[in-house]
Amino acid sequence: MPGTVDPEAICAQVIGNDTAILADGASSEFQLKGMQPLAAWNLLSGFGLLNAAAVRLNPSLVTVPA
């Protein structure tokens, strides 16, 4: 449904981004500097997703007592 936030989908995407960064580091490709743009993109993309989800979910998670 448009306009809704699916926390499970966001978590899955962020975990996938993290796994890609870990795989790049494990394969020692950092010396060749070929995978650094991918790692940077995945890291910044994960930050953006978590930020957008926090902003979008904030009204439904925070309640102010009357």
Outline of this structure?
The protein is an all-alpha fold and 66 residues long.
Q: Could you please describe the fold and organization of this structure?
A:
The protein has 66 residues and is an all-alpha fold. It has one domain (7-57). Helix content is 70%, strand content 0%. It contains 2 helices and no strands. It has helices at residues 7-26, 36-61. Helix 1 (7-26) packs antiparallel against helix 2 (36-61). The two termini are 31 Å apart.
End-to-end distance, in Å?
31 Å
Structural class: mainly alpha
Measured as a percent range, the helix fraction is 55-70%
> Number of DSSP strands?
0
Low-confidence stretches: none
- Which sequence of SSEs, written as H and E, runs from N to C? HH
Number of contiguous helices: 2
* Average of per-residue pLDDT values: 78
Portion in strands? under 5%
Q: Tell me the Rg in angstroms.
A: 16 Å
From the spread of the alpha carbons, the general shape counts as: elongated
What can be said about the biggest beta sheet?
none
Write the layout of secondary structure elements.
Layout: H1 7-26, H2 36-61
Helix pairs in contact: 1-2
